[in-house]
């Protein structure tokens, strides 16, 4: 072998060694739970997908099994519900419990009350929280940081500590001395003061492109016109998230409606179910709970893409 051939062989061998070493170094540099080198082997891939599938299945069962237990329990006979050990599948499928619960508990009236109260709270919260967040973010009033800090400080106060002050306020509204008990305004007005949703909106407005807003000002758009035509269309993801939070908060609230509504015909479904629980068969009560949960589950399934997009919309700047 000539000297030139030996030099060329060493050069190619060294280049191949450096290439393989650099590839291994890059693989090691990637910090993941399972390294790419381990996933490259058949045993590594099999172990990874086995563990991954097992974890997903375990979490799926943990979340979905209570839902199945509730839905199937509504189709069982009351004696079968209290049997020990419990039955995994209904021995006698009885879907009539849903119709009986709907008729005997007056769910139509209570669901209508809940939708009316939640819709009003959602609309007022969307209007006032959006206006306040836009003012704090873009209009920059005097002492805006102090005002925002005071609003955020209310998040540190437990909700239970505010129940008595809120009740005294709605029992005799300051200045106008009006009693709002047994009135939907007692649900709507406290719901407007939501510091978390206001802060969520403000953070989103802070990250809107400044160039777009300045272009609207150059074109002669006023503050309200900019809010209506520019800011709100760009804020649909975060407005969807705020809407879901507002609706769910009113839908699942129990203590506050119980305090402000003494008229049983105006009770939301969360309070009506508890008050009628003692007089109803267990299977019908579970059926009523299933019916009460259907609207919120449906709302999430329909708008889950918008909810997830809205949650991540203001997470990073760019």
Automatic annotation (TrEMBL):
GTP-binding found in the keyword field: no
Record bears the keyword Protease: no
Gene3D superfamilies xrefs: MetI-like
Keywords of the record: Cell membrane, Membrane, Transmembrane, Transmembrane helix, Transport
Ranges that cross the membrane: 46-71, 115-134, 146-165, 185-201, 238-262, 282-303
Any Gene Ontology CC annotation: plasma membrane
GO biological process, one term: transmembrane transport
InterPro entries linked to this entry: MetI-like (IPR000515), MetI-like_sf (IPR035906)
Localization annotation: Cell membrane
Highest taxon above the source species: Bacteria
Compositional bias of kind Low complexity: 1-21
Coarse class of the protein's main subcellular location: membrane
Region (Disordered): 1-22
Entry similarity comment: Belongs to the binding-protein-dependent transport system permease family.
Protein name: Carbohydrate ABC transporter permease
Species, as recorded: Streptomyces daliensis
Source taxonomy: Bacteria, Bacillati, Actinomycetota, Actinomycetes, Kitasatosporales
């Amino acid at each position: 072998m000539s000297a030139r051939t030996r030099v060329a062989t060493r050069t190619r061998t060294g280049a191949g060694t450096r290439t393989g070493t650099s590839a291994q170094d890059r693989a090691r540099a990637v910090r993941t739970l399972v390294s790419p080198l381990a996933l490259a082997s058949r045993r590594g891939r099999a172990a990874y997908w086995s563990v991954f599938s097992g974890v997903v299945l375990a979490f799926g069962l943990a979340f979905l099994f209570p839902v199945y237990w509730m839905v199937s329990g509504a189709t069982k006979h009351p004696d079968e519900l209290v049997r020990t050990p419990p039955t995994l599948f209904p021995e006698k499928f009885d879907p009539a419990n849903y119709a009986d619960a709907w008729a005997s508990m007056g769910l139509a009236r209570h669901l209508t009350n809940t939708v009316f109260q939640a819709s009003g709270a959602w609309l007022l919260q969307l209007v006032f929280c959006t206006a306040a967040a836009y003012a704090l973010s873009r209009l920059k009033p005097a002492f805006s940081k102090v005002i925002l800090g005071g609003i955020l400080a209310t998040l540190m106060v437990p909700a239970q500590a505010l129940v008595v002050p809120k009740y005294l306020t709605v029992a005799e509204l300051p200045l106008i001395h009006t009693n709002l008990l047994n009135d939907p305004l007692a649900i709507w007005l406290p719901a407007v003061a939501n510091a978390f949703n206001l802060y969520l909106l403000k953070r989103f407005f802070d990250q809107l492109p400044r160039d777009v807003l300045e272009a609207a000002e150059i074109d002669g758009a006023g503050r309200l016109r900019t809010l209506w035509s520019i800011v709100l269309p760009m804020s649909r993801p975060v407005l969807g998230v705020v809407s879901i939070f507002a609706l769910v908060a009113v839908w699942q609230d129990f203590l506050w409606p119980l305090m402000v509504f003494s008229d049983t015909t105006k009770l939301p479904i969360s309070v009506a179910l508890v008050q009628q629980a003692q007089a109803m068969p267990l299977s019908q009560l579970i059926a009523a709970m299933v019916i009460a949960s259907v609207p919120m589950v449906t709302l999430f399934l329909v708008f889950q893409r918008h909810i997830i997009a809205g949650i991540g919309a203001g997470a990073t700047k760019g």
